[in-house]
Each structure stands twice: as C-alpha cells, then as structure tokens.
Amino acid sequence: MKILVTGGTGFTGKALVKRLLDGGHSVVALDYKEGLKSQELRTWGAQVIIGSVTDAGVVERCMSGVEIVMHLAAAFRELNVPNSYYTEVNVGGTRLMLAAARKAGVRKFIYCSTCGVHGNIAHPPGGEDSPIQPADYYQQTKYEAEPLVLEANRQGLPSVILRPAAIYGPGDPERFMMIFKRVARGRFPMFGSGRTLYHPLYVDNLVDAFLLAMEPGKGDGQAYLIADEDYFEIEELVRRVAKALGVTVRIPHYPVWPVVVAGHICEKICKPFKITPPIFPRRVDWYRQNRAFKIDKAKRDLGYRPRVGIDEGLKATAEWCRREGYL
Ligand SMILES: NC(=O)c1ccc[n+]([C@@H]2O[C@H](COP(=O)([O-])OP(=O)(O)OC[C@H]3O[C@@H](n4cnc5c(N)ncnc54)[C@H](OP(=O)(O)O)[C@@H]3O)[C@@H](O)[C@H]2O)c1
C-alpha cells in the first residue's frame, strides 16, 4: 500500500517508516525540514516531501495515490513559539490533512494524539473514558484535533485515534536521554516522593499499534490508549535505567514545589527573549503527574499486545545511547 507518514523524520515517525518499508509498503514522508534524517529516509526507499502540514498545497500534493495516512507531525517540543503556533500546526494542520485525505479518497486515517489529553490521572490506572484535562497547550491542541478526526470518520473517512503514553526507545533524542544521562553520572535528583506513576511505551510497541490500526474496519471512530504492559513509580523507573546501564545510582530527594514555581517563572522570563528555559512546567510535570493507563480497549479491539517489556526496552535504548556517543 502507499502510506503517508507525517512527521516521518521524527523519533516515532522514523521507526514507523522503517517498519512500513520493511513490510513492502511504499511510503511518503512529509516533514518540515530537510536534513540528515530526510536523506536517511530516502536511502531506505521512502519518498520525502519537505513542507508543512499547515500548507494546503503541500498537503494535497502528498496525498496523491495514498491509501493510508498516519498523522504524527506535531508542534511538540517547541518552547520559543506563541501558543497560537500549537493551534496552527496541531489543530489547523490536522484539519487540512483530514480534508485532503477525504478529497483523495484515502481508505484510513490514523491520528497520533497523546495520553496527555487526560492530564494527571486522579484514580490510576486511567482509561479512554477518564476525564479530559490537558495540562498544557500542547496537550490541549492535540485534544482539540480529536473531534475533527471523529467528525471525518462520521463523514465517511474511516479514522482512528491513538493516544500513546510516554514513548521511548533507540532514536529518542529527548526525554529518556536526559534520564539516562543523569543516571549514568551516578546521581539522580528526585523532586518529590518519587512515587508518581509513569507509563512508558517502547517505540516498537507503538509501531505495532499503528500497523494494527491500519486494518480495514478496526477501531474506526474510536480513541485508544497505547502503552506498555506495565507502569512504574518514577523512582523504580530510574533504578531500572541504572540496571540497564549497569551502574549504581544515588537518588537524593528534594521538595518539588520550589521547582514548580521556578519552572513557571523561567518560562515567563525566557519566552519574550526566545531563550529555551532551563526548566519549564512540562518538564517539572514529570515528577508530579500520575500517568498510568489501562490498555484493555486496544487489546480487545485492535489485538494490541506490547511485545517489548521495560528491561528489554531500556537495554536496547542504553545500547543505542552508547553506540551514538550520547553517554
Ligand atoms: N514522544 C512522546 O512521548 C509522545 C507521547 C504521546 C504522543 N506523542 C505524539 O507522537 C507523535 C510523534 O512524537 P515524537 O516524539 O516522535 O515527536 P518528534 O520527534 O518531535 O516528531 C515530530 C515530527 O513532526 C515534524 N513536524 C513538526 N511540525 C511540522 C509541520 N508543521 N509540518 C510537517 N512536519 C512537522 C517534526 O519535524 P522537524 O523535526 O523537522 O521539526 C518532527 O519530525 C506526535 O504527534 C506527538 O504529539 C509523543
């Protein structure tokens, strides 16, 4: 099949593009910037189109002959942009993608949302019916695109929403890399109790979910939380990372509230000067927002089974970090 992956050079997008190509599909990747990653995708055999999901002309051009759309492109880690940028890319971009997909007669549209639409889970583990309470502008705009996807489904474009938990694995330039780096230094400062729940998702498990959602009739008009089998307290997660790296780690505890306040102040001060703040609210949320989910619905409807567990996933990630010279 011919499959369009937006955000195909991103962390998850790359893993997805590789698996689709290995499976014999033809892949078009739409991405924002030309660079080493887009060149790498081309060497694998993907067609890469450079442009924005907010550009109607580019989006229409990408859709030619496409049967399945996997929409992952998102404003995600950008800190020095106004909130309206998140709306433009995450909501406006998804709207354009859906309209172009309908026009092109696409058979299935898979929208990559986030578990973050549920914010802090008051009664873990949460499910798809847990309250929608995004904690920041990124999560809010990811959620605002969901009704557009459901509306497109009602209008005849079979569409599925996946809400991944915290994605990690080889190729992750950000989140787990920071945990790995600190643990590798032998000391991980823990703000708060360390008992906050965290639900990881190994990138290959998420790719499995995308492949399952491609199948005709599966999950249309539904949203699915996608995560690994197990969730952990963050202190336990840090210890598992130490085990994967083969190091011992000290975990001194500090109060979390001063860091919360500092995160807000840093963000406010840095934003007008377009400086990346050293700490900011979304980073601090890691220490205090419970993220633990049931994945029963995805198991039941999509046949989802997370194949890679935490120790295996962390070991593969640790090896990748070392191979790439990050540690
Ligand atoms: N990482 C997580 O833990 C997590 C958890 C839940 C959900 N998600 C969702 O999963 C998806 C993939 O996440 P990820 O971690 O793999 O993110 P990522 O590495 O940041 O990838 C996002 C990709 O989207 C591209 N992009 C951004 N704006 C674009 C635009 N206007 N037009 C075209 N492409 C654009 C980026 O291109 P450039 O790099 O060139 O800017 C990047 O390649 C996202 O939809 C995210 O919201 C992620």
Helix content: 40-55%
Q: Structural class per helix/strand content? A: alpha/beta
Residue fraction in strands: 5-15%
Summed up, the helix count is 12
**CATH architecture tag of the domain at 2-171 and 199-229 and 291-307:** 3-Layer(aba) Sandwich
Bound molecules: NADP nicotinamide-adenine-dinucleotide phosphate
CATH class of the domain at 2-171 and 199-229 and 291-307: Alpha Beta
CATH-defined topology of the domain at 2-171 and 199-229 and 291-307: Rossmann fold
Low-confidence stretches: none
Radius of gyration: 19 Å
CATH superfamily of the domain at 2-171 and 199-229 and 291-307: NAD(P)-binding Rossmann-like Domain
Number of separate strands? 13
Q: What are the secondary-structure elements, in order, as H or E?
A: EHEHEHEHEHEEHEEEHEEHEHHHH
Q: State mean pLDDT (0 to 100 scale).
A: 94
Shape assignment = globular
Main beta sheet: strand number and arrangement? 7 strands, parallel
User: Termini distance?
Assistant: 39 Å
Describe the structure.
With 327 residues, this protein is an alpha/beta fold. The chain has a domain at 2-171 and 199-229 and 291-307: NAD(P)-binding Rossmann-like Domain (Rossmann fold), CATH 3.40.50. It has twelve helices and 13 strands. It has helices at 11-22, 36-44, 56-62, 83-103, 137-154, 175-184, 203-213, 234-245, 257-270, 281-285, 296-302, 310-323; strands spanning 2-6, 26-31, 47-50, 68-71, 108-112, 159-164, 166-168, 190-191, 197-198, 200-202, 223-226, 232-233, 253-254. It has a seven-stranded parallel sheet with strand order 3-2-1-4-5-6-11, with helices on both faces. Strands 7-10 form a two-stranded parallel ribbon. The protein has a two-stranded parallel sheet with strand order 8-13. The longest helix is centred in the N-terminal third of the chain and has 21 residues, at 83-103. The model has no long low-confidence stretch (mean pLDDT 94). Bound molecules: NADP nicotinamide-adenine-dinucleotide phosphate.
